[in-house]
Amino acid sequence: xxxxxxxxxxxxxxxxxxxxxxxxxxxxxxxxxxxxxxxxxxxxxxxxxxxxxxxxxxxxxxxxxxxxxxxxxxxxxxxxxxxxxxxxxxxxxxxxxxxxxxxxxxxxxxxxxxxxxxxxxxxxxxxxxxxxxxxxxxxxxxxxxxxxxxxxxxxxxxxxxxxxxxxxxxxxxxxxxxxxxxxxxxxxxxxxxxxxxxxxxx
Length: 202
Hints:
This protein has helices spanning about 5-25, 30-50, 55-80, 90-100, 105-130, 135-150, 160-180, 180-200. It is mainly α. The mean pLDDT is about 90.
């Protein structure tokens, strides 16, 4: 397949898995290594891709705010359904918050200024963008969302993998529609602020 000949894409994905394997290997180093991983993601994009920004400032702020709120509402509804599911997923959600929620001021800074831009630049602005050279938008969204979710396998928590896949589909579709990385960053920022800081689902 032609996509496998895209060595920048393949090597970047391999390195992403290595970094995330190390990231989740020890809770005490999570914030340090995931910060380094996202700085790596950002550098890969800056070197290899033009950053898409096809929306006016008022447009990307509007769509970013609304889409971030919409995704949080979807997760909130999903959280309400957890007690009726035949799996013990509520404990996984509680455990994720306990282990990986920001604890120190610098955690909040890197979450907002490094994690969020890094994930959107890399997974949508690089991985999905390159996949769209070989597949139609629907396939590119599905594959990039699956790849995004796959790095969270090392957390050992199915809920994190599933949540990343759903978020990846959502932001992938938003990227295919608007072709605007700033829109995605605002959307991800709003979502994380609500989910992790302002209105956590635990």
